[in-house]
Write a structure and sequence with these properties.
heterodimer, A: mainly alpha, MetI-like fold, 10 helices, 0% strand, B: alpha+beta, Rossmann fold, OB fold (Dihydrolipoamide Acetyltransferase, E2P), 2 domains, 6-stranded mixed beta sheet, 5-stranded antiparallel beta sheet, 9 helices
């Protein structure tokens, strides 16, 4: 089947938005995952709950909050617009921000789990061999958590591909700017006689998500065997 | 060398360790759960005591009063874990060099090649830890700690995860490290036999406290708790020179001090020196030399002391070398064994082992 301009635009935009969202939030998610997996501090439960909030709130709520904070008249949005020339209003950057916020908890969960599975005594052994906390993180924790981190990235990417509620609330449904695949499907399904178009988009959406998940599985296996974590009697 | 006086709470138990350690190699012995590992973790810095003070070679590592706490990566104290804890994502070579690479050239006292040779792990360098057997892992782990040139080497039951056969394979490597590396070692084990193989200095730990420290017979004569009485299976270790070793004879002759010893066929050539072991419980004592008996070794000696234990007694005898025999309490009474008495130590040739081989 040949794709129409609208379909190509929706797919390309979805991939761009999801990729940016994933890349942006990755370092934060790794840091937050490490903090929750390896550190005890007062208020940890609260931090944990706050991080997970976007996962359990109706997506409209974070979308609306972002509109208030990051819109051109919002406290942060206004400052960013004036000082960095960065605007999130009704463009793809806003869509990426919305996806990032919604994907964050899922990615943190994946990172935290992968780090908790690492025997803390390995990190202890590294400490007794002269590695400071940062060196231990870079040479032991991070490489051993890599399969989990990659899985988290793909999970975040897939979640971003499907992001709908927060995006439409925050940056609307603007063709070529914020109309990602889910929004395009929503639009098509609301146009009389748009069912065929909606089905085509749905097939595209499924193919994209499925490829992401298969890629994730392949990548994780490759990394695990390169790290020596797979297929051994250890 | 090491001054220690620390207190901490661990799993609802109050622990307090106080000791001044000067011996190059000391064995820390105690039942499981007595706090031996906790002690090592405090020394390495992985665990911070609640209060107290810790000084190693004049350097203050911990002083709660002064608010001083040196983190583990600045202590230069090596720790060998029970289960090796090799980094699974690094090759054996990179595991070995992990600490080495963090030293300046001046701080390095060992190089990769001699250590690899000492531990016989040259074949393994490019492998991943997942491809190693338990004994190989533990040897790599020893090498990794050595290459960091620690000023103190802590070993936390390094053999307990291995079976008997592997233990016997690794023990000689520990001896080699002791003899060639010149690093003070604190060796934790719940096996007195392992400890005595490496050192005669014993530090006794029980219920979160150090209850004895010194030459092992002194320590054993001063303490007699049920756990320790049960755990003890003493073995004499002597260095002997093989005098005669003819294949086909079924036995060898060796010199022990000024006496001759008949042993099972020796695994080394005539003229070589080798370690032999005899369990204290396998040695019988007699007032006079006995003729017409199948026991061929009868070493004359003088009783140094009789140490009463919960189950029987340990008799320390000076027969040119120190001989420790374990006898039951009734024998001591019946024979009226006392310090100064002359006795013969009866040792069956078959009871003599070669622990290094």
């Amino acid at each position: 089947m040949t794709l129409t301009h609208e379909e190509i635009s929706a797919v390309a935009l979805s991939v761009k938005v999801a990729a940016w969202a994933t890349v942006l939030v990755c370092p934060l998610a790794v840091a937050a995952g490490w903090l929750l997996a390896r550190r005890d501090f007062t208020g940890k439960a609260l931090v944990d709950a706050l991080i997970h909030l976007p996962l359990v709130l109706p997506p409209v709520v974070p979308g609306y909050l972002m509109l208030v904070l990051f819109g051109n008249q919002g406290i942060i949005g206004k400052w960013l617009n004036e000082h960095c020339g960065l605007s999130f209003a009704f463009n793809w950057k806003g869509a990426a921000l919305a996806s990032a916020v919604m994907a964050f908890p899922l990615m943190v969960r994946s990172m935290r789990l992968s780090m908790r599975l690492i025997d803390p005594r390995l990190e202890g052994a590294a400490r007794t061999l002269g590695a400071g906390p940062f060196a231990v993180f870079c040479t032991i924790t991070l490489p051993l958590a890599l399969p989990g981190i990659l899985a988290g990235l793909i999970l975040g990417f897939s979640r971003s591909l499907g992001e709908f509620g927060a995006t439409i609330t925050f940056v609307g449904n603007v063709e070529d700017e914020t109309r990602t695949l889910p929004l395009a499907i929503y639009t098509a399904s609301h146009v009389p006689g748009g069912d065929a178009e909606a089905v085509r988009l749905i097939v595209l959406s499924m193919a994209l998500s499925l490829s992401a998940l298969l890629a994730s599985d392949w990548l994780t296996r490759r990394v695990e065997s390169r790290l020596g974590l797979r297929g051994q009697n250890a | 060398m090491l001054e220690l006086d620390i207190r901490l709470q661990r799993g609802g138990h109050a622990m307090a360790f106080a000791i001044d350690l000067d011996e190059p190699v000391s064995g820390v012995f105690g039942p499981s759960g007595s706090g031996k590992s906790t002690l090592l973790h405090c020394l390495s810095g992985l665990l911070r005591p609640d209060s107290g003070r810790m000084v190693l070679n004049g350097e203050v590592l911990f002083d709660s009063a002064a608010g001083c706490y040196v983190p583990p990566h600045r202590r230069h104290i090596g720790l060998v874990f029970q289960d090796a804890q090799l980094f699974p994502h690094l090759s054996v070579r990179n595991n070995l060099l992990y600490g080495y690479r963090r030293l300046t050239a001046k701080q390095r006292r060992f190089e990769l090649e001699p250590v690899v040779e000492l531990l016989e792990i040259g074949e393994l360098l490019e492998r991943r830890p997942g491809q190693l057997s338990g004994g190989q892992k533990q040897r790599v782990s020893l090498g990794r700690a050595l290459l960091y040139s620690p000023q103190l080497l802590l070993m936390d039951e390094p053999l307990s995860a291995l079976d008997e056969r592997l233990k016997r394979q690794i023990l000689p490597f520990l001896r080699r490290i002791r003899d060639r590396a010149q690093i003070p070692i604190l060796y934790v084990s719940h096996s007195l036999d392992e400890i005595l193989y490496l050192t005669q200095t014993l530090t006794l730990v029980d219920q979160g406290h150090i209850i004895g420290h010194g030459a092992y017979l002194d320590v054993l004569s001063q303490t007699d708790t049920a756990e320790i009485a049960e755990a003890i299976d003493l073995r004499n270790l002597w260095s002997v020179e093989i005098l005669q070793n003819q294949p086909g004879h079924g036995y060898s002759i060796a010199r022990l001090g000024s006496e001759r010893l008949i042993l099972p066929p020796a695994p080394v050539d005539t003229g070589k020196t080798i370690t032999v072991g005899v369990r204290a419980a396998q040695i019988a004592l007699s007032r006079q030399r006995i003729e017409g008996i199948t026991i061929q070794n009868q070493l004359p000696g003088q009783i140094v002391r009789v140490i009463s234990r919960r189950h029987g007694a340990l008799v320390e005898i000076d027969a040119g070398v120190v001989v420790v025999a374990e006898v039951n309490g009734k024998t001591v009474e019946d024979l009226n064994l006392r310090a100064g008495d002359v006795v013969y130590c009866l040792i069956k040739a078959q009871s003599i082992e070669y622990p290094d081989c």
